[in-house]
Amino acid sequence: MTITRHLPRALAVAVPAAALLAVTACGSADDTAAASTTAVSPAAMSQQQPANGEAGTVSANRLSVDAAGRAAQAALAQCRADGLGFVTVSVVDRAGNVQAMLRGDNAAQHTVEASRAKGYTAAAFGANTSDLAGRAKGDGATVADLPGTLFLPGGVSVKVGNASIAGIGVGGAPDGNADQVCAAAGLAAIEGSLK
Fold first, then answer.
1. SS3 of 53, please?
2. What is residue 66's three-state secondary structure?
3. Helix 110-125 and helix 176-190: axis angle, to 10°?
4. Which distant-in-sequence residues (6+ apart) come within 8 Å of 90 by Cβ?
5. pLDDT tens digit string along 37-72?
6. Scanning 87, 131, 152, 165, which has the fewest C-beta atoms within 10 Å of its C-beta?
7. What is the enclosing helix (H) or strand (E) of 76?
């Protein structure tokens, strides 16, 4: 009961103190001014245009629900054509949030998370997971230890310009390279509509 009574007071002190520490750790106003004079590529600018500069917000590109659905359907169709209809396809945004998911007939439960993790890994790193697999090897800790990632073939990065905005992940084929072919078919189905 005593803790509950003092909690608002503790938060009133702790929250402003944490904000002050964050500002101090991130740099001063002089650092911000210097950073604002640094050249920024047009591709980077197009990905994060200020929605309201006064409010300090930015907007980021993301696939539409229609594009995400088309990509998932095309990837699953490719797997079916290859005799691999028992996979799961996930289309995720850059943060790993699922935008579309199709679970093929008889797809095992583990394929759901595998496809999401492959899609997220491709989106977060801006590269196909088949190209990233080498980074997950080595002595000691590697990027493979990052939560929610999966460095196996089967994830493709969806880009607008040079910026990764989404990922398409496929999980469940006996060979990750077969998953990769299906994910690439999903990307090919929407590539012409990406701006």
1. coil
2. helix
3. 60
4. 72, 98, 100, 101, 112, 115, 116, 118, 119, 168, 169, 170, 171
5. 334 344 444 444 545 557 788 888 999 999 999 999
6. 131
7. helix 65-81
Query: In this prediction, what percent of the chain has a pLDDT beyond 90?
Result: 62
Q: How far apart are CA 88 and CA 115, in angstroms?
A: 6
Give the list of residues 6+ apart from residue 138 with CB closer than 8 angstroms, or none: none
Instruction: Report the alpha-carbon angle 82-85-90, nearest 5.
Output: 110
Give the three-class secondary structure for 165.
strand
State percent of the chain over pLDDT 70.
73
pLDDT by residue (tens digit) across 19-36? 433 433 434 334 433 333
